[in-house]
Write a structure and sequence with these properties.
The protein is mainly beta. The chain has one domain. The chain has a 16-stranded mixed beta sheet that branches.
């Protein structure tokens, strides 16, 4: 299978937690298991037939992260780089992806079943700890190693969640029809809680002469907008707006 370089890459939110603190507030600090979690229609879960996955290929690349503070000096500044690589297993049944953020020295590795984007395993290296997660529907086994100490425990959630760091895969795989909206259960790797956030396919628009679809992602702390190429499902544009102000945008590194 041929390797191609994508136009841009969404950096997993977990890996830029410190950057979000600098701009506004840490994403996971205010998150938790919502007791009013929506049910039934409008829930997009792993294995959904709504997800389009035929576009995935081996790919790699680098994106620069440019940030602007909400107050004071609002000059846009370089906040680091995101590097990534995705490899498809023989037969295309699994996606193996790795993302790293230079700003915090963090790295996330995911193995996902391609059809339905069902997460299987994840490893997050961040702040001197290593977190290994095994996904089995709504049941997750979580192992956290810090120095010589390891803690392992199981958690069961109301719905089978996606990994939060699958957000790129989810956004690029939504059905392109104006007005499509869904609630997405996302497992927050930093606090072992499931968030119920929203994705919305806003509509079609041109970016640099290429036909794309604008997608909006929202949770209590950030609002992100993306433009996804209609033909290739590559990311053409991404802007992250913390609700307390400021902005982060992602630019393909030369």
């Amino acid at each position: 299978m041929s390797r191609r370089r994508s136009t841009l890459h969404i950096l997993p939110v977990t890996l830029v937690a410190f950057s979000l603190i600098a701009l506004a507030a840490c994403h996971s600090a205010t998150q938790g298991v919502r007791t009013d979690a929506p049910r039934g229609d409008g829930m997009l879960i792993p294995g959904s037939s709504e997800l389009v996955v035929s576009h995935f290929r081996d790919e790699s690349g680098v994106a620069r992260i440019l940030g602007r503070a909400p107050v004071g000096d609002t000059t846009e500044r370089d906040m680091g780089k995101s590097t990534f690589a995705t490899h498809m297993s023989a037969g295309g049944t699994r996606l193996h992806s790795t993302s790293a953020y230079s700003g915090s020295g963090s790295q996330d590795t995911l193995v996902v079943r391609t059809q339905g984007l069902i997460p299987e395993t994840e490893q997050l290296r961040m702040r001197g700890s290593v977190t290994d997660i095994t996904y089995d529907g709504p049941r997750l086994r979580i192992s956290i190693k810090r120095g010589d100490s390891t803690r392992t425990y199981d958690r069961v959630y109301p719905e089978a969640p996606f990994a939060f760091n699958q957000l790129e895969q989810i956004v690029r795989s939504l059905p392109f029809r104006a007005g499509f909206q869904a609630v997405v259960p996302l497992f927050s790797e930093q606090d072992a809680k499931v968030e119920y956030d929203t994705v919305h396919v806003v509509g079609r628009e041109l970016v640099a002469g290429r036909q794309g679809w604008r997608v909006r992602f929202a949770d209590p702390v950030i609002v992100s907008t993306y433009v996804i190429d209609e033909a290739t499902r590559e990311l053409l544009e991404q802007v992250v707006m913390p609700r307390r102000g400021g902005r982060m945008r992602y630019v393909k590194a030369s």
